Structure formats: structure tokens, C-alpha cells
Write a sequence for this structure.
């Protein structure tokens, strides 16, 4: 029980770390370009975790695909933050957990379960409320972050495939390394060298590299061994809530009633999709055993 309580706190801390970084990154992007920021952030996280690696190394091709998807996801998310608000980016990013069952169903050539469909409808309506606020055309930043959610969904599926062979440490290190290398390659190949070492940049790099990347990935991998999948989903779904609160109190972001309703619908969709998935999997397992 003590380990389970500690695991819950770790997951809640992970959600808090991820949620609070949206506003910090948006502030930093005024003084640093996207790909230098990602290159430095993920290299630092890689170097922080590397000394803790132990055991026999095993590899799977899906780990490199997961790294590529993770890079694309963070690239779209960071670029999207240039043109959208931190809270909207957080809630749209959270829709990746709803996309996973649909992508998996497409790969397996079967229909998604009812919880995924219900969650998708709620989230789609909520996305309309927050991204079409005051206009009938979605913003450029919202569309970029929506692309981010798609790649994060693909990354989750690739991680599931690779984790059957690899341990969490090696899988995480490969992903962080791939993101860092690809960011450095684009940084060097296509320019975007603007870096002003302001307080906002240094703070964002420190918080995201240490807490929102290295410790968050390591903590999540450890905590999931001691708590149920339902509780993991419930606690990590607090990420966009923390993002909204942090953006409101720290960033001065305004929340209209339409935007609040949209955020609530997306959060409800995420919870419905995640909390019904384990029940769906249990039913499938029971049918196979019969």
C-alpha cells in the first residue's frame, strides 16, 4: 500500500511536471528556436538518465520508430505553441490517448470498442469549442498540436511493441537519443540558430529536461509497476488540468465559458476512453478463456 501511494504521488507529480511546462516553453520560444530547444532539452535528459542504466541491453526496431514519433510529436507541439495558448495545447495533446484505440483497431482491422467511440465524440466536440472559439476556422497552432497528438498516439503503440523485448530504461534512452539527434540534425541542416540565453530559456530548459523529461519518464516507468492501469490513466489525465491552472495563474490566460466547457469535454472524453479500456480488455480476455 505504501508503494502504491508513492506511485500515485509520482504519477501525479509527472502530470504536474508535464502540465506546467506548456506555459514555460511558450515563454521561452520568444528567445530560442524550436529545434535548438528540443535538441538541448533531450540531450540533457539523455545524459541525466544514462548513468542509471544497468542490466543486459536488448533492442527492438519499434524503439527507434517510437523515437521518431516522439520527435515529430514534440516538434509539432512546440511549433504549435507559437500560435496557440498553453491550455489549448495541453488539452489537444491529451487527445492522443483517444486516438490510440482507433489506430490500433485500424491496424488490427476491427472496430474500436464503445468507450473509445464515446470518448472520441466528447473530445471532438470539446476540441470544436476551444479551437473554434470566436471563429469558425481552427487556428494554425491548434492544427499543429493536433498533428502532435497523432504522433504521440503512434509513439504509444510503438512503445507497447518494443516493451515486450526491452526494459524501460533502454527504451527511454533510445527514444530520448533519437529525438535529440534528429533535433540537432534539423537545427544544423536548416538553420534556426537563434538563441538568447535569457532567464526564461534557462528555466524552461532546466524544468523540461530534468523534471518533465528525465524524471517524468523514469518515474512513470517505475510507478506503473505498483498501481493499476485505471489509476495511471486517471492521474495522468490531470496534465491538461494543471496546464490550464498554471496558464491561468502564471501566464494570465483568459478562460471564457465556451473554452472551459471545451476543456471539460476533452477531459471527460479522455477519462471515458481510458477508464473503459481495461474493462474492454478484461471482457476480451474472458471470452478467449471460454
Amino acid at each position: 500500500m505504501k508503494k502504491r501511494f508513492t506511485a500515485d504521488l509520482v504519477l501525479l507529480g509527472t502530470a504536474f511536471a508535464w502540465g506546467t511546462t506548456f506555459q514555460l516553453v511558450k515563454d521561452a520560444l520568444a528567445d530560442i528556436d524550436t529545434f535548438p530547444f528540443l535538441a538541448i532539452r533531450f540531450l540533457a535528459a539523455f545524459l541525466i538518465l544514462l548513468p542509471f542504466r544497468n542490466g543486459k541491453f536488448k533492442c527492438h526496431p519499434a524503439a527507434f520508430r517510437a523515437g521518431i514519433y516522439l520527435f515529430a510529436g514534440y516538434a509539432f507541439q512546440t511549433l504549435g505553441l507559437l500560435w496557440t495558448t498553453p491550455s489549448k495545447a495541453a488539452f489537444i495533446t491529451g487527445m492522443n490517448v483517444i486516438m490510440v484505440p482507433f489506430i490500433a483497431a485500424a491496424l488490427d482491422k476491427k472496430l474500436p470498442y464503445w468507450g473509445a467511440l464515446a470518448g472520441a465524440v466528447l473530445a471532438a466536440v470539446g476540441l470544436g469549442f476551444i479551437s473554434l472559439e470566436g471563429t469558425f476556422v481552427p487556428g494554425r497552432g491548434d492544427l499543429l498540436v493536433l498533428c502532435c497528438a497523432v504522433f504521440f498516439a503512434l509513439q504509444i503503440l510503438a512503445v507497447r511493441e518494443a516493451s515486450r523485448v526491452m526494459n524501460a530504461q533502454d527504451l527511454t534512452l533510445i527514444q530520448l537519443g533519437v529525438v535529440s539527434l534528429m533535433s540537432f540534425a534539423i537545427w544544423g541542416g536548416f538553420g534556426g540558430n537563434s538563441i538568447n540565453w535569457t532567464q526564461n530559456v534557462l528555466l524552461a530548459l532546466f524544468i523540461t529536461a530534468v523534471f518533465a523529461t528525465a524524471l517524468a519518464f523514469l518515474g512513470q516507468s517505475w510507478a506503473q509497476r505498483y498501481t493499476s492501469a485505471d489509476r495511471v490513466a486517471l492521474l495522468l489525465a490531470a496534465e491538461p488540468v494543471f496546464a490550464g491552472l498554471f496558464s491561468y495563474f502564471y501566464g494570465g490566460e483568459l478562460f471564457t465559458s465556451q473554452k472551459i466547457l471545451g476543456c471539460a469535454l476533452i477531459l471527460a472524453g479522455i477519462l471515458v476512453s481510458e477508464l473503459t479500456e481495461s474493462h474492454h480488455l478484461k471482457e476480451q480476455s474472458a471470452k478467449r478463456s471460454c
In short: The chain has a mean pLDDT of 85. The radius of gyration is 19 Å. Residues 38 and 179 are 8 Å apart (CA to CA). The chain has one domain: 2-289.
